[in-house]
Specification:
Helices cover 29% and strands 29% of the residues. It is α+β, with helices and mostly antiparallel strands and 239 residues long.
């Protein structure tokens, strides 16, 4: 009996620990590296370059100042992460949109059999990606959501990604259901309608969401000047 009580106490402590740990999530967002005299001859003064102390002549030591951004588990009412639908990625994984939390999202809705607008939307996405510094890619995800989930299986999306050189890690293709795609389109204010088998009419909108899934910018049209979109992406990633 005493042994059972001990086990119960340990389990409760473990659950409490896990619960507390999940209340917030910390992520390193920036790292500034500086140097400092190990003897602190000049107090807390730091230097941006390697060298030696002008007083004691000892080599400066590396000082890493890490700033942390605390991300709350709470999701705002405006966030797309409130959508609980499941999505298949081109890699065959099943995710929810909230699994993309923490990254700036650049999203567009297309379908792979489109011969008119979608190739231009894809070109616009690639053009945007090309103009955003590569070092931002760890905090970015370019997401293409299929309007035609019956045709665009994960296998077809994977092949499409490779064909269009969009198969790096920061690219994601999603297949939902007819219901989840319609729900997501409504959130993005994207209108679409099947006009014949394998053919849809649809809006041409590229949307930018911050790391909390809140819409911060939309670009509408084909081949438009994407300068403002790129500036908004950079601003959102570094915010």
């Amino acid at each position: 009996m005493k042994k059972n009580k001990t086990i119960l106490v340990v389990l409760l402590l473990f659950i409490t620990f896990v619960s507390c740990k999940n209340s917030t999530t910390e992520s390193i967002t920036n790292k500034d590296i500086t140097y400092q005299c190990p003897m602190k001859c000049e107090g807390e003064k730091t230097f941006t370059d390697k060298g030696s102390c002008s007083v004691c002549k000892m080599d400066l030591k590396l000082v890493a100042t890490v700033s942390k951004k605390v991300v709350s588990n709470e999701i705002s009412d405006e966030s797309i992460f409130n959508l609980t639908s499941k999505w298949n990625t081109e890699e065959g994984n099943v995710i929810e949109l909230k699994d993309l939390r923490g990254k700036t999202l650049v999203m567009v809705m297309i379908y792979t059999t489109c011969k008119a607008a979608c190739p231009r939307l894809v070109a616009d996405m690639r053009n945007i990606e090309k103009q955003v510094p590569k070092e931002y890619n760890n905090d970015l995800r370019y997401v293409l959501v299929s309007i035609d989930p019956e045709t665009d299986t994960p296998e077809k999306l994977k092949a499409f990604a490779k064909e269009n050189l969009m198969d790096d890690e920061h690219w994601t293709f999603l297949q939902g259901t007819k219901t989840s795609v319609r729900e997501f389109a409504n959130v993005l204010a994207v209108k679409y309608k099947e006009i014949s088998p394998l053919d849809f009419s649809h809006s041409n909108i590229i949307s930018v969401f911050n790391s909390e899934g809140e819409l911060v910018h939309q670009q509408e049209g084909l081949g438009v000047d994407n300068k403002e979109t790129i500036l908004k992406i950079k601003e959102t990633v570094t915010k």
